[in-house]
Write a structure and sequence with these properties.
- The chain is mainly beta and 470 residues long.
- The strands form 5 sheets. It has a 5-stranded mixed beta sheet, with no helix packed on it.
- β12 and β13 form a beta hairpin.
Length: 470
């Protein structure tokens, strides 16, 4: 982000004085660690910024900890920022997200050389230095913990590293921590992967058996007690776009490119899949069910923005250019998994394949289901977007089968229409009972149900004909 103000220099600060906005605040902890409060966000303007740094002449290992005021937080929900190294600095800015002010770190400078090893890791039994990785050598901290590299491997047996608890009193493969944070400022190069934070390009071969085979696996044994109603996210990818960023963005891109297959042929190829599974009771009873599962969830929120061209909750594009395709389907809703009859229960309150609704207070939809699009005001252009021709069926059923069962075709019994329930270019059907023949619209005939239940047709010329008795 480009700052909109010039930051002023100031004398070195050796106390716990809060940083001043619009200023380069250089702190020295040479005399001891500092705990510095940040100003209350309520007193600051959005986009106000400052720099906090550990002074370039402070070579001590003492830290400088900045703590948010009251209920203030950084935009990632943390409340503290710690500077460790000589020359290390952060540029802080006040941002406004969904009606709330937050601190945001918009620029990171990791500082110069690390403090002397003797300051970082004092140990008994020798002077500071680097020991060769030979069997049997070890470093013992003043607290009695050991960095042991017997057999050429270094194992951390208990203790802390920058506040992160490592294992227990014996060698462990796990790290118990609230968070591992590695801030970085990276400038991407001209090619797609140059400068990428994580870039993996590998070749996989061999034989995979079973359904769980995968190239990369990230698993959690989740025992987190999260606040009811808020939940917890196992993996989050956040692309926070700010000026001077330009161009479109994709938060997560899943792509399967099938260039060729082996002699065994191919099966199904999926770009992105989501699944939620449970076989447990989630605390509900027959009288008070609890817990919902979503295989996928997409939300598009413009917030307080203005003059957007379009908002799509989800778009499904189908592009088929092969010489033959057996099935081409835009969206399919399937009961059960594969060919297995594993769907055995209907919803007690609602059992619907496609549900269009709104949350309380939302603006109603203009059209519930629409064919074609109004992306242009030019009729010829709109015709180009029309997805049917004179061989198409707009709404149809299976072409195979005889006497397929159903109960009701279309049920509008709970709706009061202010206009016709069905309308074509030649006629319309009024479903509500009427005490007298309705006034026909010029050039159109109208079907209507009279008060006695009989079906009538009113011609454009005004002739009323009973089509079917009550």
């Amino acid at each position: 982000m480009t700052l909109q103000e010039t930051l002023n220099g100031a004398p070195t600060i050796t106390t716990t004085t809060a940083p001043t906005m619009g200023t380069i605040n250089s702190y020295s902890a040479a005399g001891g660690a500092l705990a510095v409060p940040l100003p209350a966000l309520s007193s600051l303007n959005v986009n106000a910024s400052c720099i906090v740094e550990k002074n370039a002449e402070d070579s001590s290992s003492n830290t400088i900890t900045f703590t948010c005021s009251g209920s203030d937080t950084f935009d990632d929900t943390t409340t503290t920022l710690v500077l460790h190294y000589t020359g290390e600095k952060r540029t802080l800015q006040v941002v406004f997200i969904s009606g709330v002010k937050y601190w945001k770190i918009i620029q990171v400078s990791p500082g110069g050389a690390l403090p002397p090893l003797s300051a970082l890791v004092p140990w008994s039994g020798g002077t500071a230095g680097i020991l060769p990785a030979t069997s049997g050598q070890h470093l013992t901290t003043q607290g009695g913990n050991t960095l042991d590299d017997g057999s050429g491997n270094v194992v951390i047996k208990g203790g802390t590293l920058d506040g992160v608890t490592i294992g227990g009193t014996t060698a462990a493969t796990s790290i118990t921590t609230d968070r591992l944070l590695g801030p970085a400022s990276i400038a991407l190069g001209p090619s797609n992967q140059t400068g990428a934070c994580i870039y993996e390009s590998i070749i996989l071969s061999g034989t995979a058996t079973g359904t769980g085979a995968c190239a990369n696996y990230l698993g959690f044994a989740d025992q987190i007690s999260a606040t009811v109603g808020t939940g917890y996210t196992g993996l989050m990818l956040l692309d926070y776009v700010v000026s001077p960023a330009a161009g479109g963005r994709i938060g997560i891109w899943g792509q399967t490119v099938v260039d060729s297959v082996g002699s065994g042929g191919g099966s199904g190829f999926i770009g992105v899949a989501g699944r939620a599974i449970t076989s447990a009771n989630l605390g509900g009873t027959l009288a008070a069910p609890k817990g919902g599962l979503w295989g996928g969830w997409f939300t598009c929120n413009t917030g307080g923005g203005t003059y957007h061209a379009s908002v799509f909750g989800i778009e499904v594009d189908v592009n088929c250019m092969s010489n033959y395709i057996l099935q081409k389907i835009g969206v399919r809703i399937v009961l059960g998994t594969g060919d297995t009859a594993d769907d055995t229960v209907r919803g007690a309150l609602d059992d619907t394949a496609l549900n269009i609704m709104q949350n309380a207070g939302a603006t109603s939809w203009g059209i519930g289901v629409k064919f074609g699009t109004d992306q242009s005001s030019t009729p010829a252009t709109i015709s180009g977007y029309w997805p049917f021709n004179n061989t198409s069926t707009i709404i149809g059923t299976s072409a195979v089968g005889d006497g397929l069962p159903a109960n009701i075709g279309i049920d509008f019994s709970l709706i009061t229409f202010s206009g016709p329930a069905f309308k074509t270019g030649a006629a319309s059907i009024a479903m509500s009972e009427m005490t007298s023949a309705p006034s026909g619209i010029s050039g159109e005939g109208q079907l209507y149900v009279a008060s006695d239940g009989s079906l009538h047709y009113l011609s454009p010329g005004g002739t009323d004909t009973m089509m079917a008795p009550a």
